[in-house]
Design a protein that fits this description.
Blueprint lengths: L1 H10 L3 H17 L15 E3 L2 E3 L3 E3 L10 H5 L5 E7 L12 E4 L4 E4 L8 H10 L5 E6 L10 H12 L5 E5 L14 H22 L5 E5 L5 H13 L4 E4 L20 E4 L3 H14 L5 E5 L5 H10 L3 E4 L1 H6 L2 H13 L1
Parallel strand pairs: 3-4, 3-13, 4-7, 7-8, 8-9, 9-10, 10-12, 12-13
Antiparallel strand pairs: 1-2, 5-6, 6-11
């Protein structure tokens, strides 16, 4: 109710500025110990995935809190888990502004942020300072000036840094906003990257006495052979989950809207069917012990249930929070609990 009243004021601002202001406001509420007042209650709907226990299957998607600055506030909103990042080894500014655009007629966003973040050392320090003790995923990528031939070095550098703090780590090879990043999804390159990450995980698990689940985040714009190749490489390399999906380069269904001509990835309602189709194809191809995490166009409990029915074990939100506000988290969890 409160967010509905505030939304017109936020939507009068530049989207990136409104995003920052919303998170800073949440931080203030968290410091006062009342961040939960911005949300609605979420019942327990426990699920075990990747060897981890989640209080409910509704998580925050990566991208909303790239540097882990807002973990405590976001953790009070009823999510079953948070995923922060994407983070790179070195700080980088991302692409030039403006780089975030609303398509309110379609409940959608276009972003070309480009992995803007303060670097992995800043992120780990933010995690260290937080009081959140729930399931925390960290999404990692490569710096924009790192050639694909050396991409594994960046992913491994991030994995080493976040290993003591994360509950799971996601290799982001599917953002459309870093040049040639999606080429890392091609079978041979992906196999080499996943093999390197799995080998490093094995080494780190001995060092820290815990095995950290690994996930890979894929694009929605893959053809059937591409999806099958990714599933096969994931299974072969002992990766624990696939997150499906990232944003889309497609503009189908929004071509008539003014912002549709902006470059970047499209998220929100127009992505829903495309992401669900990828989830279903992955689930059919992957072995049962590899989880699928569904993201893309979820704005209701029915949308979340659709992803779960297609084969996802967990779901994640981002764009719908911009349009519906933080109360959406509890609303979806309650809807899933009722449907059990």
């Amino acid at each position: 109710m409160l967010y509905r009243a505030l939304r017109p004021l936020l939507f009068a601002l530049d989207p990136e500025r409104a995003h920052g202001l919303s998170l800073k406001s949440l931080d203030v509420l968290a410091r006062l110990g009342i961040a939960s007042l911005a949300a609605t209650s979420a019942p327990r709907v426990p699920v075990r995935v990747m060897g981890l226990d989640f209080p409910n299957p509704v998580g925050l998607a990566a991208g909303l809190d790239k540097d882990g600055r807002h973990i405590d506030g976001l953790g009070a909103l009823g999510f079953g888990f948070l995923e922060i990042g994407a983070v790179t080894p070195r700080a980088q500014p991302g692409n030039a502004r403006p780089r975030l655009f609303r398509l309110p007629e379609a409940d959608a966003l276009i972003n070309r942020l480009g992995f803007n973040n303060d670097g992995v050392d800043a992120l780990t320090e933010n995690i260290r300072r937080s009081s959140y003790r729930g399931v925390l995923g960290v999404n990692v990528g490569k710096n924009s000036d790192t050639p694909n031939e050396r991409a594994a070095d960046d992913y491994i550098a991030c994995l080493r840094k976040v290993y003591p703090f994360a509950s799971f780590v996601t290799a982001n090879v599917s953002s459309p906003n870093t040049k040639d990043l999606r080429a890392l999804q091609h079978a041979s390159r992906l196999d080499a990257l996943l093999a390197a990450l799995a080998a490093e995980r094995d080494s780190l698990s001995k060092q820290y006495g815990k095995r950290l689940p690994l996930a890979v985040k894929v694009a929605p714009d893959l053809d059937e052979p591409g999806i099958e190749a990714i599933a096969d490489r994931v299974a072969a390399r002992g990766i624990d989950a696939v997150i499906a999906t990232n944003t889309t380069a497609s503009r189908e269904g929004v071509e008539h809207l003014p912002a549709s001509g902006e470059s970047g990835g499209l998220s929100g309602a127009p992505l829903k069917a495309l992401a669900t189709a990828v989830i279903a194809k992955l689930r059919r191809r992957l072995p049962a012990n590899v989880a699928v995490i569904g993201v893309g166009g979820i704005a209701s409990a029915a949308d979340a249930r659709e992803k779960l029915d297609a084969g996802a074990s967990l779901v994640q939100l981002y764009t719908a929070l911009v349009y519906r506000g933080p109360g959406l988290v509890g609303e979806i969890v309650r809807g899933l609990a009722t449907a059990r």
